[in-house]
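We store chain and fold; example below:
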Amino acid sequence: MARGDWIKLHRRVMEGPIFKHDGLFRLWCFCLIRANWKDTKWLMPRTFTPIQIPRGSFVTGRNSLHKELYGEHDDREMPAPAPTTLWGWLKCLQELGCIKLQNMSNRCTLVSVCNYSTYQGDGIDTLSTDAPQAGNRLATDDPLTSTDKEYKNYKKGKKERSARFEPPT
């Protein structure tokens, strides 16, 4: 599995004000999913100037954000909000301290998730590369065949217990 295919979402998100508003919660999750998991370069439209997009950030605009989030929306359930409403929710997330918005030009905005490494930290930065790798097997003094015998005895005891209708201990 390649890195960057998933995000972490803590249960504490249910305690905050974002969880109580369906649109804000959907937008917050979208920001976490859409944010870069590593630093990348991006070409600014019509200028061909490469800019550095840091980890935990992404570039978007009002209409492109609406298209990405509600592009093929089915209006039978709930109508999609207008692009200006969605942008207002993005400003609300900024006021709550969840994201930072930085205007890159009249065409795009850099959205940075605050504390992205805290939310999505994988611990790789804190590991030392000099440490020896631990094996996948646990060290035991018993030979492997004793485990097979123990398993057979366990299964045999389980059959005997179920025949006597005693609860397992």
Notes: Residues 115 and 132 are 31 Å apart (CA to CA). The longest strand covers residues 99-103. The helical segments are 22-34, 62-70, 83-95, 116-120, 144-164. The chain has five helices and five strands.
